């Protein structure tokens, strides 16, 4: 009887807890579960990120240029975060916004949409096992796309989790070690090297590769 009562008590406590969880808290827990599946034991800095709640967005929809909102044809904006985009040729750093809607990811410069990646065509998302904030969004080889998107983001765990959940492609996220390949365009590929050093930096090495320290 004691064992049965213990089980009933535990079930009652669990039921009470679940019924008391707000929609916001439930969404937060769901995101953290996905982040754990992707990054736990794979990427440096993950453990420190666990206690930090994910924000709904880093910038509000009102912070976007009205022209951008017109260009995305009224799609519901789900998440906006400042990023640094690296050119595929030359690797020049450029400040951009990553805008995630319910249907696509947009790389935005002021009032211009520089690149649109529909979730249905998303081929993969890559990040390194080190503490850098590099995210590579892999796109298909077609005339609509210029090549893969190389981004640096301060909120890498949050951003990758949001992206893969909106795209419903959690299984396409890869945490790589050492290096990764990205598509430059026109059938060409580039290489990104990840290494450890005393100071974080990102630069084009003499070999022509993008090096992330």
From TrEMBL:
GO molecular function, one term: cytoskeletal motor activity
GO cellular component: myosin complex
Domain TH1: 43-213
Coiled coil stretches, renumbered: none
High-level lineage: Eukaryota, Metazoa, Chordata, Craniata, Vertebrata
InterPro entries xref list: Myosin_TH1 (IPR010926)
Protein name per UniProt: Unconventional myosin-Ih
Entries under Pfam families matching the protein: Myosin_TH1
PROSITE patterns noted in UniProt: TH1
């Amino acid at each position: 009887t004691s064992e049965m009562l213990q089980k009933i008590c535990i079930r009652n406590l669990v039921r009470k807890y679940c019924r008391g969880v707000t929609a916001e808290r439930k969404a937060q827990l769901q995101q953290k579960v996905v982040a754990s599946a992707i990054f736990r034991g794979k990427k440096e800095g993950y453990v420190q990120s666990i206690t930090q709640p994910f924000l709904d967005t880093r910038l509000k929809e009102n912070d976007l240029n009205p022209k951008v909102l017109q260009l995305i044809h009224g799609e519901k904006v789900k998440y906006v975060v400042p990023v640094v985009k690296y050119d595929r040729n030359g690797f020049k750093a450029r400040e951009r916004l990553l805008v995630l809607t319910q249907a696509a990811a947009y790389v935005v410069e002021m009032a211009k949409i520089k690149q649109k990646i529909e979730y249905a065509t998303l081929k993969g998302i890559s990040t390194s096992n080190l503490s850098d904030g590099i995210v590579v969004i892999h796109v298909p080889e077609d005339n609509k796309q210029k090549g893969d998107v190389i981004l640096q983001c301060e909120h890498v765990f949050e951003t990758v989790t949001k992206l893969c959940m909106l795209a419903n492609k959690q299984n396409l996220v890869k945490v790589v070690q050492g290096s990764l390949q990205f598509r430059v365009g026109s059938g060409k590929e580039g290489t990104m090297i990840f290494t450890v050093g005393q100071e974080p930096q990102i630069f084009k090495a003499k070999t022509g590769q993008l090096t992330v320290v």
